[in-house]
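re: ur question from the group chat, yeah i did fold both. here u go
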Amino acid sequence: MKNRLLHFIVLITVQLGFAQNNFLWQGYFSYNEIMDLSESSTTIYAASENALFFKNIITSQIKTTNTVDGLSGQTISSLHYSAVFNKTLVGYENGLMIVINEIDGSMLNVVDIINKQLPPNTKKINHFMEFEGIVYVSCDFGIVQFNLATLQFGDTYFIGDNGAEISISQTTIYNGSIYAASNTGIRKAAISNKNLVDYKQWEVIAAGRWSGIATFGTDLFAVNAAGYLYKYDSNANAFLQYATLAQPSLDMRATANYLVVTTSNTIYVYDKQMALVRQINTNQITESNPSFTCATIIGETIFIGTKEDGMISTTISVASVFENTMPSGPTRNNIFALQATSNSLWAVYGDYSEIYNPYPLDSYGISKFSAKGWLNIPYEKVLGAKSLVRIIVNPTNENEVYIGSSYSGLLKIENDMPSVLFNQKNSGLEQISFIPNYFNDVRINGAVFDKSGNLWVNNSLVNNGIKVLKVDGVWQSFSTKPILIDPEKCSYGRMTVDKNGTKWLTTNRDGVIGFNENNNKFKKITSGPDAGNLPIADARVVAVDAKNQLWIGTTKGLRVLSNVGNFLSDDQLTANPIIILEDNLAQELLYEQFITDIVVDGANNKWIGTADSGVFLVSPNGQETKYHFTTSNSPLPSNVINDIDINSVTGEVFIATAKGLVSFKGVSTAANDDLSNAYVYPNPVRPEYQGTVKISGLLDKANIKITDIEGNLVYETISEGGTIEWDTTAFGKYKVASGVYMIFISAQDGVETKVKKVMIIR
């Protein structure tokens, strides 16, 4: 028991160590949806859905911050930069607040609002207002003080009638009073009052719903939910209507010289005399026609946040042009499917519900990442294909990509350009026929190339559910009536092909089916001890590992078929759970887990994604859980895992979650055919480096010996896959000294050898 507890503690420590070492993780976030902006005299600070970027307007240098750096994967709702304290405050919809020290980049998670005994849906942070070292945090329940010097929360103000919780959208200081715009009116109190926790100290000076309030020069302005701009009359102690907006205001703020009001279609910029010096309408930005979210000004430059087009900059001058200013990234954070090759990564955003319902249909386009950066192919160029849900790259031609749609059929892309949309009109694919009025619904969710270069796809909710596009361009269909109870009500998930050419398909009603066209044979693995032993008939993913085992992920757990070759001999295929020991008790690995993906790496480990529990990395036989990555111990922005794939050359594991894409740089590379490309990195190993030395480009089962310059052995291992790691210790006992170390690599049969060197600097 003590040993298992120690192993658990060590495992958690290792996992937390990995989470803190940025060199192992990489974030690939979208910066298209701008939630808020803040500014200093030289820098614009922008918050996207769950990541930040900062641009120095003098040097044009852009810096990003995301979950890899310590941010939460939750949705950001407010942002504030304090020039006095050189700190950035990030507010979230769930009430979390993160304070970033801009001097050293350190982050402090402040959870006081999250921990308040209030309904979870009332903790959203709407606005930060700084005054004399205190930040007044506007939330959906009231106002909270935060001291920037001590980094501690102070009083909480519940200022509704009889001390009720009310949603505060914004606060400001004007003539010695603090004003709060809320969903039940504008209230004010003397800022010097030491008893502001008493709701009776707050005076209601305007009724109704108010979205913003700001002090500009010597005046006070507010906007209400109906879209009217008001100016405060101190003599009347009331707000008087000043201007009418075309739409309700989403954001209002005062800068040094301008008052900026933002609606979804228009930016209004007023000077100190309240003259409207610039009005920007979305239709003026012809490249994208965006939807605005917020705007601010540094000097004479206007920075505009948008809903889907990132941050746009322009100047006060009407004749100026518009420039898109943001880091490169995918179109959206919620990537549903991805596919990695040795040189690129493809991503799509279409989705479907747990019951494979794609409605409402998505129109998001496609993204590709390569050495050139991100290429985002908009929906307007994908030939009308909606709800794109699965990607398959031709293994013999990376420039040929096929993308399955959960509504429109199969899209072919050649040289990064969509070229053909295969559907019921121009191919062997079929539309749903039994549901009235769904005349164009062609659902393709799984696809795989066989060793002959033929492309196999599954076609849901039709009798002929298996299709193949042969190398010569001819389509062929295969009926699934012999094996499925009711093919026209069967939706398919992922599919794969084994070394014997057997295609394995997951279904939502009949478990897993295997099909081999050479003998026109079907087999089925479904629920029940005599029918395949799956925990449920709803299977989602299948993967064949290096030992020809079929790993099956269902909505209720994991099963493994011991040998795919049994398809050719056994009448009934039976899969079994993996039984592990936890505290000397036998338990089923991933019991009851909704498994979304299984990927086999170069060392035959299994990367397993789940619907709500993050990612598991298990050993080849499943008996050891090497890592369990979640939002609490890693940079994963969400525990909802949509897809996983691995670059077999670099070993980079890409993990698509519901709130962003990250990657883990492990040792998941495939074995090489020879040692000609063996290499060591990093080299040299410098004092500040805290990671491991990786030796890549290996044969499987290669023998690696590492010695010091005098020939003393300090490490020895056998490779599994194409990469091994050395922690720069002498057999785990102590860190080796500075110097040059020799790495001797030999194939299992001893025929091929290689010698490399690595320099370590302590």
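okk and heres the other one u asked abt
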Amino acid sequence: MPGPRALLVLLAAAAFLASRAVADPPASERSALLAFLTATPHERRLGWNASTPACTWVGVTCDNANTTVVELRLPGVGLVGAIPPATLGRLTNLRVLSLRSNRILGPVPDDLLRLPGLKSLFLQQNRLSGAIPQGIEGLAGLERLVLSDNNLSGPIPFALNNLTALRVLRLDGNGLSGPIPSISIPGLGVFNVSDNNLNGSIPKSLSGFPADSFAGNQRLCGAPLPPCPFFPPTPAPGMSPGGGGPVPGSSGKKRKLSGAAIAGIVVGAVVAGLLLLLAIVLCAASRRRRRSGAREGPKAATAAASASAAAGAGAARGQPPAAGGDGGGGGMTSSSKEDLGGGASGSAAAVAAAAAGGAAGEQSRLVFVGKGAAGYSFDLEDLLRASAEVLGKGSVGTSYKAVLEEGTTVVVKRLKDVAVARREFDAHMDALGKVEHRNVLPVRAYYFSKDEKLLVYDYLPNGSLSAMLHGSRGSGRTPMDWEARMRSALCAARGLAHLHTAHNLVHGNVKASNVLLRPDADAAALSDFSLHPLFAPSSTRAGGYRAPEVVDTRRLSFKSDVYSLGVLLLELLTGKSPAQASLEGDGTLDLPRWVQSVVREEWTAEVFDVELVRLGASAEEEMVALLQVAMACVATVPDARPDAPDVVRMIEEIGGGHGARTTTEESEGVRGTSEEERSRSGGTPPTAPTP
């Protein structure tokens, strides 16, 4: 017979068990689990039964009070097919989901992206396909994301940066491609993207992880892997990709030559010997002809004069001189011989290029433009030997940070889809090289060949306005304050006004990623200006910054530039990028329309960036005034938009001391000094400037 105390303990335990037996998750969660299991074929019998409490089902874990499902673990139970919609997404309090080692097909389901409290998601060793969805950023509290050993493809989304609580990220064993985004999450302790198809340089923020985290990506380079060399894929004729740096992904092991390779070498040596013998015979025959010609005297002189006259007549008709002969140099100069690697003795490549017209030497040169290029003293081979780091891919090409052996750092932009000929390209670069202004980043040099077009710029280590404004939001970074935003707005407007008034150039691609920051806060610079005439017409360039009237990107105007500047001002005010804004709602809302809709409802305060509000920005009047300027710039009718110099004046009047000019010359360059410039600023300039 138990004592009274023991009896009380037994009664309490019984009451506790009874309460747990009675408590059960809501009917909606039970039905969601049953719907998931019913619609998903599975090989193992799980024994889920509607007549038993859901918290007792295999793989289901509830909270302490048995009132909601917090974990669902079904590893290796033979699940086959896609996760059915409107099932697991209804488990609103789910913290852990593990469906690893099954045969789940299809894309990462949107259903799972509707679980705001999810902490751990384990989907490795399945057959998931498609891209990692951008909506993954909605799982803000996610700490462990494991998608290894699936069939995922496409790029790694930059949106992963918004998962600021992430501790484990494993994406290895998929088919992901493109560069690795600059993921900078302070608490990230495990990171693995090995065995994919990634390329480019590893971001510095991830270089501290071991090399095994990046192995199996043949075109990936940079610490902790070997450094990235900068090699254009197809050098100009006669050029070697000097430097001999390692090609990313190449093996350092010595390989034995096959029998076929040895035979090929032997045959090549025999052929080379025969050619050498033939050359000696030809030289001897040439000497005999010269001796006989010397004996003929007047006849030879007459023949030479006739040949010279014929060559002159051919040149007058636009025909190239005949190749070959002792006197026919084919236009080759001493400098072009050096560029082709022929030197004093010449080479087969140099002779072939000379016979083709002698233009290859020019194509092999790095051409410097503008006064600012005087400080540089490197050539193309120095550039080819430089180690490179991918800075980003834009609408016109990929930008690299190139560190030369001498220590100089420049930015090299590899242009894609250039549609103009060499002469037009040269003339345009010469015009762009004449631009000198503290708020514009000019081209310093360029390279043109059939297969490669490169531009060289100064390197500004402070990064872009876009990275400063949007990078790693919510991860404890210092937000961009109001004064810094006003200075950036003023710098962008001044740089644009200078292009319009002083050089009659349309920028064509004004956006936050093309506003580069300098240590001097008043000297942020517009980059990538006036490149649109080099490309075929496109409707995709400039993205959410493009004016509504722009259909042909080769027919941009000053007014379309002002529209883009207005979108940039709205971006500074709202903290939203046009790309993000266009994805909201039904996918048709762009940033200007969104702002207009909010202001129309008299909720103007809702427009401004929450980071500014959190900083306690006291310049509300200035913010509202800049909003009015921005709305004028994004007017639908082009003629209703102000000119760029007027935008500068309005911003200066708002900001007061946010950025004073330093010289009278700069002031005149921004405002324009003549009626001719003022009238030009309202019209449409030619599609390509006349140098």
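fwiw on the second one: The chain has 19 helices and 22 strands. Residues 12-221 form a domain with the Leucine-rich repeat, LRR (right-handed beta-alpha superhelix) fold (CATH 3.80.10.10). idk if thats what u expected
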